[in-house]
Amino acid sequence: MLPVLVTAEEMRRMDRRTIEEFDIPGLLLMENAGLQVVTHAERQFGSWRGKRVLVLCGGGNNGGDGMVVARHVAQRGAEVQIVLVADPAKVAGDALTNLQIVQKLGLPLHVLRSTEHLQSIWANGWDVVVDALLGIGVTGEVRGLVGETIRFFGECPVPVVAVDVPSGIDADTGAVCGCAMGATLTVTFGAMKVGLAVYPGAEYAGEVVVADIGIPAAVVEQSGVLRRLITQEQVRQWLPVRPADAHKGRFGHVLVVGGSVGLAGAPMMAAEAALRVGAGLCSVAVPQSIYAAAAATLREAMVRPLPDAPEGCLSAESVEAMSPLLERANVLAIGPGWGTYPPAREGLRKLLSIAQAPCVIDADALNCIAQAPDILPAQHPPLVLTPHPGEMARLMNTDTATVQANRLAIAQEAAQRFGAVVVLKGARTVIATPEGRIWVNLTGNSGMATGGSGDVLTGAIAGLLAQGLDAERSAAAGVYIHGLAGDLAARKEGTAGLIAGDIIRCLPEAIMHIEQSGG
Asked: Quick one: DSSP state of residue 4?
């Protein structure tokens, strides 16, 4: 099944089509859902036999799933208590059927009518809590008895299994709707929900398992959803083949353009990353004032000094001297260490006006575009823009909080505005295309929040572009590989002391790991 990312409404449409067009009863989907929760939780926490399990159920279909969970864990030897946080008279449809089943089976069922009983319920002592209160059904701030229940159990000291989506998390955005249950494990149904893939929802979800509950693959494939998770298998398929008799020219020539006084390391990190992901050649064009420092950093790169402005940055005059370099390169990486002085802005304007090769644009080059949007010509070669949230806020004339609260939407808007593949960096990096496709990356860790990490990503994407991948695939694969390299580095160095050089050193290992994953 495709690794799609869906909203709550898209998931409901898939459910309806499954029921109406394929004649698969909703009751069967609910049964499958509950059984999948039981199975995956057992794999995580061990046998249910002898465990004391508290199942919190709402009045909708999520609560119905919870009733199925309660029945199956009881059959597997658990001591179960169901708490219904709803008026039983208002439970309907398949959820009502499952409520009636657990009542006929005589499973312990407590209808919660006030918060005063929560403490006595908790005092019984539980090994596992199952959250089946709301699922994808959250609209607006959670209030009333359900809200009070979520707040009471919100930081539960025992494992919590969320059914589909942790209660209180917006399935579309990952936002906390006033309050939310933190989960150890979330078993979500049919497809990954957007709100589980991005923060803060991802933090509340814990480990996430996407469970097959019987929705036909055709329903997912024909859904028209253009959001995807980047998977290791997908990246493996994209990686360029390296014939045994190939020469360095076969794997492309990256030209990194950047650097300024005080920022000599940035373009060199990008250059090394480009080589570490497989680019055959890499040249680096830097201001004359930092040439000696830059050239001494990386033996494998061809560093070229250019005339610089008094501020120690590149300028339009610098770009005029770059013609021989531009003729040889098939990809440009622009921006690491660039600076935002007026000469730097005019140098960027000149460079983008004559560039013919695909460009990866990062760092201060993005800030220059934000200051003077007309720097980016209407007609341009394929572009990959790689802003962090602050740079994105400047590009889109908004604030960082707005960007972070709407990462997918902002990335998509930027991609369409600039006619470029946009990589919105951060935890769960988002890649958006002008055509409307969105990719979300799950690799990476907090140790990568360190100076130079973005320069490494720029080089990795440029290195893949140089080897023949298109802009979209280079961006998505580059982000995945960069994050995986960070994860491998964190295993060796920990997260607190991780530096960009650690990520660079692990790029080849990350690629080897991906290549070998295909058997």
From this structure: B
Is residue 119 domain-shared with residue 214, that is, in the same domain?
Answer: yes
Domain span at residue 162 reads 5-229
Is the pLDDT score of 198 beyond 90? yes
Band of the pLDDT at 2, cuts 50, 70, 90?
confident
> What's phi and psi for 340, nearest 5 deg?
-120, 20
Domains identified in the chain, total number: 2
Alpha-carbon distance 472 to 480, whole Å?
12
Tokens read off for 435: 């055509």
Other Cβ atoms within 10 Å of 49 Cβ, number: 11
pLDDT for the residue numbered 518: 74
Q: Quick one: 181 and 316 in the same domain?
A: no
- Only one residue has tokens 């001591």, namely 79
Do 292 and 211 belong together in one domain? Answer: no
Determine how many CB atoms are found less than 10 A away from the CB of residue 371. 13
Q: Are residues 31 and 150 in the same domain?
A: yes
pLDDT of residue 131: 98
Cβ-based neighbours of 275, under 8 Å, separated by 6 or more: 282, 300, 301, 463
Coil, strand or helix at 345: helix
pLDDT at 519 over 70: no
Q: What is the 3-state secondary structure of 177-196? A: CCCCCCCCEEEEECCEEHHH
CB atoms within 10 A of CB 321: 16
Instruction: Based on DSSP, count helices (H) and strands (E) in the chain, helices before strands.
Output: 22, 19
**Same domain for 221 and 260?**
no
- In the predicted model, is pLDDT for residue 155 greater than 90? no
Q: What is the CATH number of the domain that holds 356?
A: 3.40.1190.20
Residues 420 and 467 placed together within one structural domain of the fold: yes
Whether 262 has a pLDDT exceeding 80, the answer reads: yes
Report the side by side order of strands in the sheet with 359-361.
227-229, 438-440, 430-432, 421-424, 383-385, 359-361, 331-334, 253-257, 281-287, 302-306
How many other CB atoms sit within 10 Å of the CB of residue 248?
A: 10
- pLDDT at position 43 is 98
pTM for this entry: 0.95
Q: Residue 200, preceding bond cis, omega within 30 degrees?
A: yes
Tell me the CATH number at 215: 3.40.50.10260
